[in-house]
Protein 1
Amino acid sequence: MTRQTQTWKWAALMMTALLWTLAGCGSGNTDKGADKGASSAADKGKTASDKGAQSAKGPADGAPGSKSAPLRVMLVPADGGTEQGTRADYEPLFNAITKDTGLHFNIKVGQSYNAVVEAAVGKKIDIAFFGPITYHQARQRGAVELLAVAVSKGKSVYYSGIFVAKESGIGSLTDLKGKSVAFGDVNSTSSFNFPLAMIIDAGLDPVKDLGKVNMTGSHANSLTALAAGKVDAACASVTSYEKAVKGGQIDPQKVVLLATSEPIPYPPLALHKDLPAPLKKTLKDAFNTIHTQPQIKPEMIRGYGGKKVDRYDANYPEAEFDKAMGKLAKVTENLKAELLKKATAQ
């Protein structure tokens, strides 16, 4: 073998070794690139998945209950008909539902009890807080169905009361004969209808036996009129009385409870019947379980009068409201009309 041939063979071996080394490096870089690419895609996929999971909580933009199309809520003006009183009572609860479900709400207060009924019938609202009577009226007209009722200490009831000044000398319902009485709204369960039934059961004719009748429009207004000495008695829910005492508007040493009604089904939250079935289920499930959600503080679970309650029951029997209406059989439409006529004539 010549020296020239050996040189060419040595060069060929070196070239082969170099090519194998380059191929190995290239292969290693390719694998690392593939790993990096796969890792990047996985990260991107994970991020997209996470974002999808977040956006899945709550409706899509423009859908009922989204930020751009919040569910319309209207509350009966149990404590005055302003955008503060009753609205402030229920905002913590609806904020809790938003936190749990991603649903959004636009809360307003009706200027009268009847205004809320008509808004439901006219399909201008999606959810309403009613008194038992206004709920019955809206349900009878085919507009609503039950959403949920608050539960406190295992019960879903509240009470109507008739209040007097402690030094008035009025000791029984029969003593109201000839006395001036303040009532709330004519469609209010506990500031008008149940007090009337109590007065009738005591043997008095509200139209003939009562003195001046003052229709104030709300529980709070009736209690204020009594505290100011403008009337001898005021009709309101016990819850409204307790709220006024807590707020300093009423001195419990001066204004006292004369008589209490029998238990009344708690003022309900209702759904419009035309809401989509899946949305109804979401809302009912949310109210049924809101008290169990770890991110929800107990003080957010509130009900009528802003009072803290234990939970909500979306399976409360409708029959309980029908029973309550049966107890008001003596409070006829004719009697209401005569009493309102008496009030406006004074």
Protein 2
Amino acid sequence: MRHLISIAVILSLACLFGCAKKAEKAMAPEEDIALAEEAEPEAAPLPAAPDDGVKYKKADEGGAPERGIAGTTATPTEEAGEIALPEVFEPVPEAEAADLVGKLLLIKTASLTTEVDNLDQGFEEVYAVAHAEKGLVVGTTRSVADEGYAFGSVTIKVHPAKYEETIRELRKIGRLMSENSTTEDITQEYVDIQARLENAEATRDRYLEILATRAGTVPDVLEVEREIERVTENIERFKGQLRYYDSQIGLSTITVNLEEPHAAVPTGYSFGKAVKDAFRIALRICIFLVQAFIVLLPFIILLIILVLIIRLVVWFFQRRRRKAKAAAAQS
């Protein structure tokens, strides 16, 4: 009986203790909020919005969004006094992008491989395209393969503005087999060479001023003249590089490779061709042996002379030894 009473008392105390803990936790947030409200200082005024081309706005309740950067919208925020920043930025206008591309220095080159039924007719068609696009034909090649088909190439130069249009017209010639187009940006190299050229010209002018206004000894004058000559050579080299870049930038290069139809592999075995190839290989081996003999001839002559000298020395000592033995035998 006593044990039952003790257990009942312990359970009652445990229940009371748990209820007290729950009440304490429920009251804690309200006390924290009250303390935070008492301790919260007065909000400091926001700094003035910087004049950087972006408009800022205090978001009032029900306020309409205000325009920021061109083409953007500043979204009002929930709390008063917070700065509303633009979330979406408009891309660079097409006019500005075109102006940026126009300032780049680009070298454009292309290579096309085309199969034509007749090589001469293909050449005439390429010439016609170059003439229509105000281009220049700067080089041609023609060859005939062992299999009997003809092939060649035409190199033309056109204005960069006509580059894409010229390629479109050249694709219409024959049957296009391959095409390769590259664009190289040399803006950085060009600007760097221009800066070096300006520095070299300024250095040369200072040397010329020193040579004209200051008196010095003959060695000093010769040293200044040597420096002027060295700087002048650098100036001419820089100018030559700029002229080369100007020629590559001013005219784009297009190479058209033309070839007549031909079999990819030989159709059969040819005894005459095999004999011809064997004779050609034998001739190359003979030429190689003759060239090797000519190269090794000086070493062979030196080796023969060395062997003769050694042989002569050995003969001389042997002869001297035989004489000594003969004299000892007679005595």
Protein 3
Amino acid sequence: MIVNVLWLLLGAGTIILFGAAMIQKNNKNCSDIKVEITGVDEHLLIDEKDVKDLINKNADLTNKQVKQIDLKAIETELEKTAWVKNAELFFDNNQVLQVRIEERQPVARIFTVQGSSFYIDSAGIRLPLSDKLSARVPMFTNFPSDKVPLSTPDSLLMKGVVNLGRSITYDSFWRAQIEQVYITPQATFELIPVIGDQTIVFGDASDIESKLTNLYTFYKKAWVQNGINAYKKLDIRFRNQVVATRKGAEAVLSDSTKANAAIYALMKGGVINNLAKLDSTGIAIKDAAQIKKALLIKKDKNKLETKRIQNTKKRINTFSIVKKSGSKKEKQLNNIKKD
């Protein structure tokens, strides 16, 4: 019985001491504010200064007692900011206000046909552009609407944008290689690469990882075998395959025409051996060499033809002279016979 009473007294004393400590703590002023921002990899579209400015919007918290600060209200206010996904605040034992901010991660920048632009995060939430910096995410152009809320077809399309943008953004290779995604009128996607001048027909947003894996495998083989600039279109819509279309006759003709014009300019200026400067593509240089060879062959043929014509003229002139001389001798012989 006595032991139970002692335990009760000990418990009551502990509670009283804890309560007194809490009261003493709450009566102290906030000593400082520490901000930690997570949820992003390479960029902060909201920084520590922005957070502190929001917290101290009405009054400097470091001049207020802990008990006078409504942490829940501050959390709610912070989460109204478009770039803040979640906010948690608490005081540590030194009366320092610890602020934990989870920033929204943009996965794409949208350009609509109406001319507006905005970011979207991994949950499809629209985010405003930032004056601080531009997020390193793929650009999706030609989105059909800037309305809020979107229609059902546009909502489905936006979901595809989010999924494709997330796959590109979260992969270091694709984030560096794909700079733009064009949205077709049929609500499908075409990828515009940084390296290579071909169009990559992606189709809809189904089987994203499989399509990108197939494309990556093709890249590794194509760069080694032919070079990526040998193709004008890559179609990755089909399962487990990449349909590659090589540059056709029109592309070769274009390069040849450009090379021909350049050679003409070089020949006109008296410089014909600087063909390596004509174009950065192997096709153009190859065609330039062929054109040079053809021009030189034609030049030689022209020389031979000119020489042949000149020789023919000489033979004709010689024959005329001989014939004329023969006529004079014949006339003299006839006169002698008459005499």
